[in-house]
Amino acid sequence: MPKYVSVAFEANLDTHYTYRVPENLREGALMGTRVMAPLGKSQRIGYIVREDPDAPKGIELKEIGSLVDKVAMITPPLMKLAIFVSEYYFCGLGQALRCFLPAPVRHRATDLGLVHVVKIKLSGPELEDLYKKCSERFWKKRNLLRCLLLKAAAPDQKTPLLLQELRERAECDLASVRALEKQGVIEIALEKHWSLRDDEAALPNVPPELTEDQKRAVDLVLEKKNEFAAFLLHGVTGSGKTEVYLHIIEEALKANKTAIVLVPEIALTPQTADRFRGRFGSKVAVLHSAQSDKERHNQWWRIREGHARVVVGARSAIFSPVSDLGCVIVDEEHEGSYKQNGEAPYYNARDLAVMRAKLENCPVVLGSATPSLESVRNAQIGKYTLLNLKKRVCASADIETELVDLNQEVLAAPQFGLVSRSLKSALANCLERREQAILFLNRRGYVPRLICPECYETLKCPSCSVPLAYHKRDNQLKCHLCGYTAEYLPPYKCPDCDVNLKPAGYGTQRVENLLHALFPESKIGRMDRDTTSKRGSHEKILGDFASHEFDILLGTQMIAKGLDFHNVTLVGVLNADISLNTPDFRSGERTFQLVTQVVGRSGRGAKAGKSIVQSYTPEASVLRCAVSGDWEGFVKKEMEERKEFNYPPFSHIIEIVFRSKEGKKAYEAAAKVQKKLAALSEGMTGYFYMTEVEEAYPAFAFNEYRWQIHLRVSSVMRAMETLLRPIKPFLKNTSSVKCQVDVDPV
Ligand code: ADP
Ligand code: ZN
Questions:
Q1: E strands, 181-255, where?
Q2: Mind listing the pLDDT tens digit for each residue in 412-453?
Q3: Among the four residues 18, 22, 180, 346, which has the most C-beta atoms within 10 Å?
Q4: Pocket probe mutation, ligand 1, options 233, 243, 261, 565, max atoms within 8 Å of Cβ
Q5: Residue 197's pLDDT is what?
Q6: From CA 285, how far away is CA 259, in angstroms rounded?
Q7: Are residues 131 and 97 in the same domain?
Q8: Taking 60 as the threshold, does the pLDDT of residue 562 lie above it?
Q9: Is 132 exposed, middle or buried (0-12, 13-18, 19+ CB in 10 A)?
Q10: Residues 300 and 339 in one domain
Q11: Which of 107, 134, 169 is the last residue of a domain?
Q12: Domain of 348: which CATH number?
C-alpha cells in the first residue's frame, strides 16, 4: 500500500507531482486510479502514474484529497502505452491518459456505484436573468450559469448533468458549484450508476473452410501467438482478410485471451459489427463515436470487467482495457482516419496497435488492399512479415476498367459535365439491366467555387483562405472548413478585374441534377455530409440502396469503402484529380488507394462489373497503375520518389504549426523556434532536415494565420530528446499564439 504517489494531471504539464496518501485512502491508491489532489489553489482530477516507496527529500508534500475510482481505470500495460504516447507524440502524461478513457467513462466516478448529478431548480428565464445580472468579475459563476443555460436548452435535457462534466465544462472547482447549490439554483444529488447489459445479439455465422492462402496466413500468425510479431496482410477487397482475422481471434479466445480489432470509423457499419457478433456472440463489444454516452459507458465497463473479450472499434478502441491481449488487428491499415485530429495527442492508432502488441507480447496483423508505404517498407526491411491473399474468394465476376480523359469530354459534350459519354452509356446499360451503380465525387455542394474568368481569383471565406462553395438547395455559400454560411446573392465581382465571378466545377448536388436530367426514370440517392447530418441517416441511405429503393448512389468518400452490394455492377470515380492535386507528398498514394477501393466496389456478386475512372490527367502513372491493378508498379515508382527526397517512409516528419489572429506573431514565434532548432540540430546524429518557416495549408483558417516548420528526421525519439524537449517552453500555447506539434502527420 503506497504512502506516496506520483500524480499526472490532464493539462499539458511537463511533469507529475508527488503526494502523500492519507492512511484511510492507501488501500485504493493504486497505479491507474484517479484521485482528487490539490494543484495550485484548487483540487483537480489526476491519475496515479506511479506508487512511490519514499518521499522526495526536502519538500513539504501535499495530501491526496480523495479517490475518484474504486478500481484502476488505467491498467499496467496501458500505463506503459501512455508513457510511450507522451514521449513520442510530445505531450504531458496526464494529457495522454485523458484520451485513454472515453468521456462518458471519465465523467462518472465508479465510487459505490453512485454518481453525483446536478439538478437545475430554476426555470429557463430565471436562469437567464441570473446569468445576465452576474458580473464578469465572477467568471466561474458566469461559466457555470452559461453551462446550465445550455443544458436547460439542450434537446437531451432528460439525460442527467453530471457534476464532473459540469465542472470540466465550466472549468471551475467544487466550491463554486456548492455556492450555487446554497443559492438554490441547483441541487447536487447522488444517483445510481448505469447498469451493464450485454450487447445485442446477431445471427450466428458459421466459419467457412479456409482457402489455401488464408490457411497459410492464419498458420503463420498462430506460430507467433505467444510473442510479439507484426504481419502485413495484403489482399484485395473480397480476398477473405476478415475471415483470416476471425480465425486468429477464435484461437486467441480458445486460449482465454482477448482481441482488439480496429476498423476505420467509416467502415464501422452494422454489417461489420454483425460479422463479429455473429461469430463470437456476446463476447463482442463494439465502440464507435455515434453511440450514446450510456452505450459507450456500458461497453467500456463490459470490457474492463472482462465480459467482453473482443473489442471492435474505431481508433480509440486501441486504448480498450482488455487484459491478456492475444492479438491486435488493424483493418484498412492505410486509412488516414486512424490518426487522431482535433485534440492532442495526435496519435496514429495503427502505430499504437503495433506498440501495444509489443508491450503485451502478442501478434498484430495490419490488413489492407492498398497498404501504406510505411507498412510496405517495414515488410521490405523484414520488420513485418508479408502475408498475401492473391485472389478474391468468390471471384466469379470480371471487372472491366476504363480511364476516361475528361479533356476530350469538355470538347465533345460540355453540357454533361462530369458525366462522360462512356459513363453515360454504361449507366444506361446498367439501369436497363435493373442493376445498380455507385458514383464517387469527393466534393459536396453544387459548385465548389466562384471564380473570376480573367484572373482566376476565387471568392473566399472571410475566416479562411479557402473558396466558398455554392449550395443550391439552401441557396447559400458555405465554407467547408469552418462552416461559415451566407445567403447566395449574385452577382459577385472580382475586386481587381471588375467582372462577375462565375460558378466553376461540380459538386455532388450539381451532378445529382445532371443525372436526373439524363435519366429521369431512375432514382438517385445522394450521400454526403449534407444528407447525413441526422443520426441514423447514414444507415438509412445504405439500407435503402441495399433494398434497391434507388438505382444510383452518388456520394463523397463516405461511400468509398466497406460497402458490399451484390447488385452493383458499375462504379465511377467522377474526378480523380481532386485527390491527385492536393499539395501533399501523399496525394499519389491516396489517389491510388481511393481509386483501387472504389473500383473494388463493383462486381462483388455473381454479375460482371465495370468501373470508370475520369480524370483531366489520365496519363498520370498513379491512375494507370490503379486502373490496371498494378500495385507493385505503383509501389516501386512511389518508393523511388520518396527515397529520392527522403520523405516517409525513409524519414519521419515532425510538423510544428503556429497559429495566431495576428500573422506577424505566429510568424515570429515560428522563426524563433526555427533558429533554436537549427542551433540544436548541430549536435544531432542521424538524418535531419528542416524547412524555413513556411505558410501552412491553408495559410489562414478559422480567423487564424498559420505558419509552420517541417522537420524530417530518422528517429523521432532522438529528435524529441535533442531538439524539442530542450525548447519545450517555446512550443507552448501563449495567450496570442497557439503551437501544435504533430508527429508523423497524415
Ligand atoms: P475482405 O475482408 O478481404 O474484404 P472477406 O473476409 O470479407 O474479405 O471475404 C469476402 C467474402 O467471401 C465474404 O462474403 C466472406 O464470407 C466470404 N469468404 C471468405 N473466406 C471464405 C472461405 N474460405 N470460403 C467461403 N467464403 C469465404
Ligand atoms: Zn471558413
A1: 186-192, 229-235
A2: 877 778 999 999 999 999 999 999 999 999 999 999 999 999
A3: 180
A4: 243
A5: 46
A6: 11
A7: no
A8: no
A9: exposed
A10: yes
A11: 107
A12: 3.40.50.300
Domain count, the chain: 6
Q: The domain containing residue 48 runs over which residues?
A: 4-107
Question: Which residues, 6 or more positions from 200, have their beta carbon under 8 angstroms from its beta carbon?
Answer: 277
pLDDT tens, residue by residue, 142-181: 989 988 988 887 755 556 787 877 888 888 888 889 899 9
Q: Strands, E, within 702-746: which ranges?
A: 704-713, 737-743
Residue 420 CB–ligand 1 contact under 6 Å: no
Long-range contacts at 616-623 (CB < 8 A, ≥ 24 apart): 616/405, 616/406, 616/407, 616/575, 616/577, 617/577, 617/580, 618/403, 618/404, 618/405, 618/406, 620/580, 620/588, 622/580, 622/588, 622/591, 622/592, 623/403, 623/576, 623/580, 623/591, 623/595
Is the CB–ligand 1 distance for residue 393 below 6 Å?
yes
127 and 94 assigned to the same domain: no
Q: 242 CB less than 6 Å from ligand 1?
A: yes
One domain for residues 404 and 464 = no
CB-CB contact of 192 with 114 (8 Å): yes
Q: Is residue 580 part of a domain?
A: yes
Extended strands (E) in 331-451:
363-368, 384-389, 399-405, 436-440, 449-451
In terms of domains, do 564 and 618 share one? yes
Cell numbers at 185, concatenated: 439554483
For the chain, the maximum distance between any two Cα atoms, rounded to a whole number of angstroms, is 85
Residues 288-329 pLDDT 10s = 877 878 788 888 988 988 889 999 999 999 999 999 999 999
In angstroms, the Cα distances linking 277 to 205, 298, 320 are 9, 17, 18
- Among all bound ligands, the one having the nearest atom to the CA of 561 is 1
Contact 571, 731 (CB under 8 A): no
Both 86 and 131 in one domain: the answer is: no
Q: How far is the CA of 463 from the centre of ligand 2 (A)?
A: 5
pLDDT tens sequence across 607-616? 778 899 999 9
Ligand 1 neighbourhood includes 524 CB (under 6 angstroms): no
pLDDT band at 2 (very low <50, low <70, confident <90, very high): confident
Last residue of a domain, one of 80, 107, 134: 107
Give the model confidence (pLDDT) of 263-292 as tens digits: 998 777 777 888 898 899 889 999 887 787
